[in-house]
Amino acid sequence: MSRVKPLSGFPEWSPAERVVESSIIATLREVFALHGFAEIETRAVEPVARLAGDSEASKEIYALSRLKAEDKPDAALGLHFDLTVPFARYVEEFAPVLAFPFRRYQVQKVWRGERPQEGRYREFYQADIDIVGRDVLPAHLEAEVAIVMARALAALPIPRATMHINNRRLVEGFYRSVGIEDVPGALRSVDKLDKIGSDGVRAELTAKGVSDTATAGVLELAKIHARDASFVNAIEDLWETTFTTGDAEAEKLFADGIAELAALVNAVNAAVPGTAVADLRIARGLDYYTGAVYETVLEGHEDLGSICSGGRYDSLVAGGGFPGVGMSIGVSRLVSRVLSANLASATRAVPSAVLVAVTDEDSRAASDRIADSLRGRGIPAEVAPSAAKFGKQIQHAERRGIPFVWFPDSGEVKDIRSGTQVPADAGTWEPPAGDRWPRTVGASQRG
Amino acid sequence: MSRVKPLSGFPEWSPAERVVESSIIATLREVFALHGFAEIETRAVEPVARLAGDSEASKEIYALSRLKAEDKPDAALGLHFDLTVPFARYVEEFAPVLAFPFRRYQVQKVWRGERPQEGRYREFYQADIDIVGRDVLPAHLEAEVAIVMARALAALPIPRATMHINNRRLVEGFYRSVGIEDVPGALRSVDKLDKIGSDGVRAELTAKGVSDTATAGVLELAKIHARDASFVNAIEDLWETTFTTGDAEAEKLFADGIAELAALVNAVNAAVPGTAVADLRIARGLDYYTGAVYETVLEGHEDLGSICSGGRYDSLVAGGGFPGVGMSIGVSRLVSRVLSANLASATRAVPSAVLVAVTDEDSRAASDRIADSLRGRGIPAEVAPSAAKFGKQIQHAERRGIPFVWFPDSGEVKDIRSGTQVPADAGTWEPPAGDRWPRTVGASQRG
Fold first, then answer.
1. Where does residue B54 rank: exposed (0-12), middle (13-18), buried (19+ CB within 10 A)?
2. How far apart are CA A330 and CA A279, in angstroms?
3. Backbone angles phi, psi at A310, to 5 degrees
4. Closest alpha carbon within chain A to B5
5. B388: buried, middle or exposed (CB in 10 Å: 19+, 13-18, 0-12)?
6. Which residue of B has its CA nearest to A387?
């Protein structure tokens, strides 16, 4: 047999690992659906012209070509690298049949032609929720999206997630008030705080012509964070000691942003206590976002970076008119960590709760009938592949991780973990609830 | 707003249509899992060298390239065009952690760079089941796979499916007995019966040097079909009137094939009455298959061709040692027909069973609490996006297809279809079971 090696950047799971991934996705779906988000799926490809709009991401696009195209080539198509670009196109295309505000969730794979490296995938699952309005979108939906995501994360077998929230209006208002003209440029520098430190950011800002007092103000602002509205006091203290230009429009933006951020952090923490932090350092794609911006960090797994990010935007589509707010979970990276850090595992790799033994090939039909009786009541079952000695059949169940073996002749079922064997009727017997289907069990539940 | 047009060959569904697709896939998953099939997912890409082995399919491979690769190109990768090639590679790669016979199901999209045409997709869902042994695979699993697929199809909102079954050994034994040397070549001609008729097939076989008597026998054999083992008599009658070479090995193959096919058709019909037909015309990829071969036709939708096909093979992997049997459903083609022929539709497009009205923005938190109380008991709910007049909020529910509107002040819930409004407690109220989640309802159930 030829050795087959995995492809770097394209994760795949064993059947037991897939149980974990599958249950994580099912949990996300359920939380999203309970909150009224409808599921959509989009095709895997978009015209490259549509994908390539974002210059940063375009380097990573996988373009398609037909291997042996004899006729004219396809319109240039590429694989989507996120779920936002296809969602925007979907909303335009399906707008006539959608009721706005449209609440959608989407769990699909995306592809990025990155250099493979630790924790960077070329194919991975994302799970997105967005609420998109027609022309208007009430601010309370910025809280709702964060709350739904916080609840979804809380339902997973992972440590506590903290959502770091900032507000684009607050930041832009402050930056403009201290005299910064190229706000996006300054933000791109501040976004590197983790990488290059405050000295590095200071040097960059100075090189971009930002004054020393403005730079000092910007760096102080980025230090402010709090689990409640108390960040407002810190901002006010900073404001009093900072030189400002007196730009009234910028100051209004700043004040509105503060009020929005305070209300948002309070609303999220009221619904899911201890989740939200106002963090004035979050700069995430503020070019695109126009209100709240979110990043989410997993306690003890900060090296993963943000596991769930997003924000509020003025319009999903280029022509305007579809304001929205959305967040996206990097599911595969999360699943990979759950598995590698042993945060959770599957109770078994196969669906079957019961292996029905076969006494001899002539009576296989009797074993089939028992299995069908169990299946008819929603108990997954399989019949032994061969009428080997019972010891061998029990071994087969053990190898596959099946907890119960049914003996048709004696009409008994054996829990092969404890060895307990009891008489049973295939028309009424029930496995313990926890044994019916494979489950994903968190490390804490395993004791 | 720019007009966005669908991409030919890449189907997408509205949220209501996605409910139908999603429920069809969920039904398949459940039937497969109840029969002990474990789910796996494979990456979307394989090395082109692995994909291109099948010369017929290689024309349709979508190859990937990084749009702006500045460094060396990726190893030549292509999108998988079926789920068999990646499954074979997966079994090789994961063999050490799999327990054989390994029963797996897989529901994923596949891509084929075909010319777009009616009913041909370039991206579509397939749902596959296979049972793969290590070195050995008992014959009764050929019946099991067919039975599981027949049950899965019977659980869908589609007309009756008939499974046409043939046996490779029977056909090869007969062809060799009548003196045909190039059996695969003859089969390729017989496979065109529908397209070119018996005169066309006769001409092709003659051109390939097959004798007139052998050709006549082959064409007669292809006419034989029966819903039970009575096909055996027809074959015996044919045998008696056909000149044979007396090749003992071929005759044993022939006799074994007849016995296997008779047992298989009987077993499938015993489990799912009226499903199986022995049909000696089925030629489907007999190069690859070595035992049973299956095709499935939907009553009244014969133009779809085979909706579920497969067979028994000697080894999944090139090196040998992994005999198996599998079948594959073309899910997207089926879903497309279900939708276009209005065989089934969704009861609503959004998950929410309840829209909680908002009296005024100051009391939004009270509406949120009611929604949370419902969600906590598994009832999907959403809160009205704005505190408009109740009439407008009811209109919003109507547009979204939400059956119930909850009024927090009066503590009443209204079924907006009937207009019935009753007092209710969010901690105990239950919607009718059929209203809790969106459901897919067959045409017959809609009355």
1. middle
2. 21
3. 165, -160
4. A93
5. middle
6. B138
